[in-house]
Amino acid sequence: MTGFDTLAIHAGQDPDPRTGAVAIPIYQTSTYKQDGVGGLRSGYEYSRSANPTRAALEEAMAALEVGARGRAFASGLAAEDAYFRTACRPGDHVLLPGDAYGGTFRLVARVLANWGVEYTSVPLDDLDAVRSAVRPNTKVVWCETPTNPLLGIADIAGLADIAHGAGAHLVVDNTFASPYLQQPIALGADVVVHSTTKYLGGHSDVVGGALVAADAELGEQLAFHQNAMGAVAGPFDAWLVLRGIKTLGVRMDRHCANAERIAEFLVGHPAVDRVLYPGLPSHPGHDLAARQMRGFGGMVSFTLRGGEETALKVCGLVSVFTLGESLGGVESLIEHPGRMTHSSVAGSPLEVPNDLVRLSVGIENVEDLIDDLTSALA
Ligand code: PLP
Known about the structure:
Elements: H1 4-10, H2 52-64, E1 69-73, H3 76-87, E2 93-97, H4 102-112, E3 118-122, H5 127-133, E4 138-144, H6 156-165, E5 169-173, H7 178-181, E6 191-195, E7 209-213, H8 216-229, H9 235-246, H10 248-267, E8 272-276, H11 286-292, E9 299-304, H12 307-317, E10 322-323, E11 333-335, E12 356-360, H13 366-377
Parallel strand pairs: 2-3, 2-4, 4-5, 5-6, 10-11
Antiparallel strand pairs: 1-7, 6-7, 8-9, 9-12, 11-12
Helix pairs in contact: 2-9, 3-4, 3-8, 12-13
């Protein structure tokens, strides 16, 4: 069993041994009967420590990201926090992408910094800049590729070399690509993080997160912190993500095809200034993305010649696209990062352009999406 779609349907998801149920049951239980004190019947004792539905998701995640251990959390940020508390101590230094997801930046700059963690933001598409930003106390190089919301592309293998040369981890937030399009551990990353809220869940009906460690020992340390800190995925949420994962490949193919068509449409539109999509040959990261990704993803950002006012207007004029935060669901979403998802980085070096609009292109008929944008941009 090696094909991605086969693993997505079967890894960690053998039929239930008791009933033969093909779908993993939702083990909605907090505790488990013990056969005498300390005698565990099933290997499970308490659902914060482990739960069979969550364990199935964790095994599936490890298989899809070609890692040793997967861990599932209550949100992407809970997963990130558990990783940082595992890998960093006060006085350690973290390198963040120049346009990191705003919530990651806020976690590091406003929570971990209070705990004594230092950080520097650096453009990850410039490996020399990354090399010079590394310090003796650097423990983590944090990478997003493609980045949110500017769709920058970073060289995962190149960053892994720099991180490992400095004795640091390379962590890749693979939320935008999903493991179907990109497998960072195969390119040298030590840890992959996901907001499973996005493409893995895929239906905008669950908030969740995951970590996958390349190495079993680090996986054990993450498991310790997951249990000690407690922000685990509940059984129903784990089940929803598992169900989403089964169709990840077919959904991603359609997300990519629709996004490519929309990016081409926007490039030719007179109201649009710049289109940011790694699938466009004009994108500075296009060749690198073509090498390290199977497809270019479903996210498209663009700026408008009319500036912020026009960007806000367009967000309000669509009808098939829904104005909303988040991404990666079957339905198309539109948002204004400066005022919505990335308002937490306003005034910081990570501030995003105010004429930027971000699309999470769904899997509807692309003609309907293009008609919707045509009338909103008119
Ligand atoms: N990483 C990226 C790239 C994201 O876009 C998000 C959320 O938007 C997160 C992490 C955080 O995930 P969550 O919202 O599930 O906590």
